[in-house]
Amino acid sequence: MADLPTVYVLDPYHPDAIARLTSTPNIRYVLPSDPAKASWHQHATALLVRSETKIRADDFQRAEKLKVIVKQGVGVDNIDLDAARSRGIVVCNTPALNSEAVAELTISLALAVARRVCELDRLIRQGQTVVRSEMLGRSLFRKTVGIVGMGNIGRVVARKWIGAMEGSIVAYDPFVADGAWSDIPHERVTELAELLRKADVVTLHVPLTEQTRGLIGREHLALMKKEAILINCARGGIVDEKALLEALQKRTIFGAALDAMDVEPPTTEAYGEGLLACPNVIMTPHVGASTVENQSRSGVAVVETLLAVLEGKDVPNRVV
């Protein structure tokens, strides 16, 4: 028993994932509700995490038995990959599994901003009379969406947009080879500025890296159409939030929806006098992947990946 691998689940996972883990013989496990979770540095062979938990260089230095971390979702910016690499610790994620759910939220937020759904709902809840002729929304039918990031999520957004809106696609991604998206009608641009000028909706689907931090700043927002909508269901830090606030307050763009922001989860302390005070803003607490179906499927995939690594198998979703 002393040599059995010990798996610590540091963040909440769907019951289907927990059931898969706890039904596996010859491992120990510590679940999120167990107070012993706090001692993972001393005993963990493997970690299951989500975005809530940050694994930094000092964590790796203290975790002498740690061999593998599997993170649910695509982004791994909450894990110090250089530190993991230097210690020979395997890091895996679950790419592509969140694509449908995140794309679904992207379309939902675009429509909600365009038709002023949340704005109207707030007014009604406050007991105010809504004069419909003064609260006109915008139609997204046959409008152009600019997709920044031509990965798994971006492709699904494009297909949904074409199917639901009969709309056009403008795509920007300098890291994807020519010929990508050959199965989807689109216009590919080589400059972000060109996309920003053309798009009625700009949606971001890139990881947070040194290259993408502050990707949408004041000068970029100034290029967008006055009636355009910005959607960020990717990562906080990609959008300069001060510049976005200025654009929204001045109504140089129609509105924005953020499922990812600098402060997560968003609070009234952080945003109450800023973005949350703008009627043309919707903020959600990074819930793009938060559907029952997706959490079950991706949670089980995390456990399957972990077990495969512990068995010495190669996995396609290894990051480090």
UniProtKB/TrEMBL annotation:
What would be an example GO MF term here? oxidoreductase activity, acting on the CH-OH group of donors, NAD or NADP as acceptor
Keywords linked to the UniProt accession: Amino-acid biosynthesis, NAD, Oxidoreductase
* Every D-isomer specific 2-hydroxyacid dehydrogenase NAD-binding domain range: 107-288
Which parts of the chain span the membrane according to its record? none
A Pfam family matched in the record:
2-Hacid_dh_C
Q: D-isomer specific 2-hydroxyacid dehydrogenase catalytic domain: from which residue to which, for each copy?
A: 7-319
- Which InterPro entries did the record assign? D-2-hydroxyacid_DH (IPR050857), D-isomer_2_OHA_DH_cat_dom (IPR006139), D-isomer_DH_CS (IPR029753), D-isomer_DH_CS1 (IPR029752), D-isomer_DH_NAD-bd (IPR006140), NAD(P)-bd_dom_sf (IPR036291)
Per the UniProt entry, what is one GO biological process? amino acid biosynthetic process
Superkingdom per UniProt: Eukaryota
Q: Which family does it belong to?
A: Belongs to the D-isomer specific 2-hydroxyacid dehydrogenase family.
Q: What is this protein called?
A: Phosphoglycerate dehydrogenase
Organism the protein comes from:
Rasamsonia emersonii (strain ATCC 16479 / CBS 393.64 / IMI 116815)
